[in-house]
Specification:
heterodimer, A: 82 residues, mainly beta, Folate-binding fold, B: 193 residues, alpha+beta, Gyrase A, domain 2, six-stranded antiparallel sheet, five-stranded antiparallel sheet, 4 helices, 14% helix, 31% strand, binds zinc ion
Chain lengths: 82, 193
């Protein structure tokens, strides 16, 4: 079990939230090449270490927020509302 | 506006343990009015509770800060129009009667927290959820809005969910109380369907 700190609700069981994955910037759809768009849709860094990711507080305040999580230890730091 | 007769998804109970330490009772007919209002609106100022807390108004309605910029007002049955009329609607504000869209139950007693804790991820102890605390969480895998609303000094929680999950939620909560001797009526067992 991972305890994830929601900026609105405080510490919550990760089962009450939804992990929306790594934060990645969205290219401009009007100028992005097919390769850039494919990378935006499917390619992730998936590091063994710190990753900046978005979570959705599904069971609580229903807001999105950003945290940094260490994928090896599940240590979490720096949460902020998205 | 006349009120529509309410039909609860739960037609049993209340269920009480022999020692009286926990009671589960249907409360679906409770009037439920949802308010969404931006910061700085007259509605937000009038409701006057922040996310996570509640207050009992002079008209006996229970005003809950259900989510950021969202409130739920609970009242006695049949009061939706009267309660809605108390909310100023200037600016970016919606007021919706969700009475018929939500089921609700009340669990009370000295073992209410212990029973609920079996099927809810949150710590329902005094420190995190004191009387008046408002929070949302999964209860028996059903997404619920909860408020700790003690009665006569007894621990008590009001739990609301989407109406279509109401019967299951009642069954799941009643099942969590069997440890304390609550008898489940035939056909209302969690397992065995
Ligand atoms: Zn939250």
């Amino acid at each position: 079990m991972i305890i994830v700190p929601c900026p609105n609700c405080g510490p919550r069981n990760s089962g009450d939230l939804q992990n929306c994955g790594e934060n990645i910037s969205r290219p401009d759809p009007s100028t992005a090449s097919l390769v850039e768009w494919r990378e935006y849709l499917y390619m992730r860094e998936n590091p063994a270490g710190w990753v900046t990711e978005t979570w959705y507080c599904r069971g609580g305040c229903r807001r999105y927020f950003t945290i940094q999580r260490n994928t090896v230890t599940n240590e979490i730091r720096g949460q902020e509302a998205s | 506006m006349s009120e529509i007769t309410f039909k609860s998804p739960v037609d049993v109970g209340p269920l009480t343990s022999p020692d009286g330490s926990v009671t589960v009772a249907d409360a679906a007919s409770t009037t439920k009015v949802q308010v969404r209002a931006g910061a700085g609106t007259a509605a937000a100022a009038a409701l006057d509770v922040s996310y996570g807390s509640s207050r009992r108004r002079a008209d006996d309605a229970l005003v809950c800060g259900t989510r950021p910029d969202e409130w739920t007002i609970y009242g006695t049955p049949g009061q939706a129009a009267a309660i809605s009329a108390t909310v100023p609607t200037d600016g970016f504000v919606t007021v919706i009667d969700i009475t018929h869209g939500r089921a609700m139950l009340r669990i009370s007693g000295s073992n209410a927290s212990a029973s609920l804790n079996k099927i809810c991820n949150l710590d329902l102890g005094e420190e995190l959820t004191p009387n008046g605390a408002v929070f949302s969480a999964s209860v028996g895998n059903v997404g619920c809005d909860l408020v700790r609303d003690d009665q006569n000094g007894q621990t008590s929680f009001l739990i609301a969910c989407e109406r279509s999950f109401g019967k299951f939620l009642f069954i799941a909560v009643a099942d969590a109380c069997t440890e304390f001797g609550v008898q489940i009526p035939a056909g209302w067992e969690l397992h065995g369907h």
